[in-house]
Each structure stands twice: as C-alpha cells, then as structure tokens.
C-alpha cells in the first residue's frame, strides 16, 4: 500500500496532467512522470520552492494555477522543429501549388503549430524564391502556437549557426543576416523583408473557434496532432479544414496522415490533402 504522502503526490500529479490535457489537448500518460518532473525542474528552481510536491501544492492549493499555467504549458510542450523539415512538402508547394495560384490575389499560408518559426520562415523563403521568378506574386504568412515562449522566439527570428544546417547556402546568403551574441556565439537573423511577411500569434488549436481567416491557400498542421487523443485529432482537423479555401491544401506530419478522415479532404501526396472545390 502506498504511503499517504505518495498518494497525495500522485493526486497532485494526476491533477497536473488533467489540467494540461484539458487546456491544450496534450496527453500526458503516467509513464511520462519522469519527463514531466525533469521539464518542470527549471520552473521549480525559478519559483524558489524545494521540490515538485511543494510546487504542485502551491499551484493547486494556494491559488497560483492561473499565473503558473502558461509556464507549465511552455515547459510541457514539445517544440522540436527544423528549417525545411519534411522537405518534400515545400517541393510540392513549389511544383504543384504555387504555379497554379492566380496572380489576382495574395497567397495565404498558415503554420498552425509554428513552434519557434522555422516552418513559417521556410515557407517565406520558398515564396520569396517563387516571387523572384514570378514578379507580382504576393503572399502573407501566419504562424500560431500555444506556447508564448516559442511565439516570442519566432518573432525574434534569431537562430544559431547549427540551426541553419538544412537551409541551402544560396538562401542563407539572401535571407539570413549573420551576427554575434554578446558572448561571441555566431547567430543569424531572418532578414527584415521576410520577417515583414510573417505574423506570429499565440493560439490554442483545441479552442472552439480560431480567430483566423477562412480562405487559407495552404495550412501546415504538422507534428502536433500526435500529442492529442483521437477525438481531439478529428475535432482539430475538422476545425482547421474550415479555414482551408475550396481547392486549398492541408499538410500534416508524415506519421499523422491516418488521422485525416474529414470527407472534404482528399489525399494528393504523402501527408498532403486537397479540399474539395465544391
Ligand atoms: C513538435 S512542434 C511542431 C512544429 C512544426 N509544425 C514542425 O512540424 O516542425 C509541436 C508544436 O505544437 C504546439 N502545440 C501543442 N499543443 C498545441 C495546441 N493545443 N495549440 C497550438 N499549438 C500547440 C507546441 O507548442 C509545439 O510548438
């Protein structure tokens, strides 16, 4: 039989997982408790309490839930991303979508779990290259994420040299400004002309409504559905599909295709779907 202290600990941890799932859709099974504790450690230190138990008591019993929740969400989201991640999707846009876009209207792209901005800026570089070959091509990019920390990082658009590894050199030369941090580390910033094309905002995909235009030409919803349960995956895909214009496209992560069963969407390439024209 577990001691009352351990049982109380369990209860608090279960409460933490439940609230994170309720607010973000992210599933946190019990076997992830070491990961959860590891990720919360920095926050526990910053707050100045001795351990996770005291921290969770402070959060749930002493009324600090509202102020701590954004920090908890920040540390418990997985923000791994890269420039040109799943590169074939950018190739598909370049080859099959951009050439068919009518010159009469601006191309609208949404990175709907943008993390620190690499996906949105990769799209920006792809569109800037297309615009060089097609003068007059106009585009705008929206990036949204639930984590305020990554949204801030995305807006800053500053990356380490190692993070640039997948960006072709010619694009690095055109679209990145090189510099140094105060401690001499080599850093690169996306050039102003591309930054001007991208707007980042904090947004929860599990919310009932998205304050976003419903005429997106392309939405990337990649590598975020895996964190949700099946019902939430379906709900999010359906909500997102409402924002794809007829004839527009939705891309998901390579392991996420099976989740897309919305009847309005037809698969047209690996992890890529087209919305019916009507
Ligand atoms: C693994 S990253 C994927 C980034 C990028 N789409 C890619 O494929 O490289 C997943 C992102 O989803 C965000 N996320 C998790 N739950 C979310 C939610 N409910 N609403 C919006 N974003 C969420 C996380 O904060 C994280 O930045």
TrEMBL record:
Every CheR-type methyltransferase domain range: 1-257
Listed GO MF terms: protein-glutamate O-methyltransferase activity
Keyword Kinase attributed: no
GO BP, sorted A to Z: methylation
Keywords: Methyltransferase, S-adenosyl-L-methionine, Transferase
Enzyme Commission (EC) number: 2.1.1.80
PANTHER family cross-referenced by the UniProt entry: CHEMOTAXIS PROTEIN METHYLTRANSFERASE
Main function: Methylation of the membrane-bound methyl-accepting chemotaxis proteins (MCP) to form gamma-glutamyl methyl ester residues in MCP.
Protein name, as recorded: Chemotaxis protein methyltransferase
Organism encoding this protein: Thalassovita gelatinovora (Thalassobius gelatinovorus)
Gene: cheR_1
């Amino acid at each position: 039989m577990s001691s009352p202290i351990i049982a109380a600990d369990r209860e608090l941890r279960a409460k933490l997982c439940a609230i994170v799932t309720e607010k973000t859709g992210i599933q946190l099974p019990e076997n992830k408790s070491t990961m959860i504790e590891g990720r919360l450690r920095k926050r526990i230190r910053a707050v100045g309490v001795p351990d996770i138990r005291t921290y969770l008591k402070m959060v749930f019993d002493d009324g600090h839930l509202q102020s701590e929740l954004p920090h908890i969400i920040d540390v418990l989201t997985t923000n791994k991303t890269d420039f040109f991640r799943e590169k074939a999707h950018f190739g598909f846009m370049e080859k099959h979508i951009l050439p068919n876009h009518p010159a009469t209207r601006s191309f609208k792209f949404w990175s709907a779990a943008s993390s620190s901005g690499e996906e949105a800026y990769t799209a920006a570089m792809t569109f800037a290259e297309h615009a060089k070959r097609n003068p007059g091509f106009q585009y705008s990019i929206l990036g949204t994420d639930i984590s305020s920390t990554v949204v801030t990082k995305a807006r800053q658009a500053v990356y380490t040299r190692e993070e640039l590894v997948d960006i072709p050199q010619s694009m690095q030369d055109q679209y990145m400004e090189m510099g140094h941090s105060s401690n001499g580390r080599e850093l690169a910033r996306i050039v102003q002309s591309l930054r001007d094309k991208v707007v980042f905002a904090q947004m929860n995909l599990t919310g009932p409504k998205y304050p976003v235009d419903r005429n997106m030409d392309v939405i990337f919803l990649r590598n975020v559905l895996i964190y949700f349960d099946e019902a939430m995956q379906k709900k999010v895909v359906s909500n997102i599909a409402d924002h794809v214009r007829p004839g527009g496209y939705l891309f998901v992560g390579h392991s996420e295709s099976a989740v897309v069963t919305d009847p309005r969407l037809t698969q047209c390439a690996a992890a890529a779907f087209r919305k019916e024209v009507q």
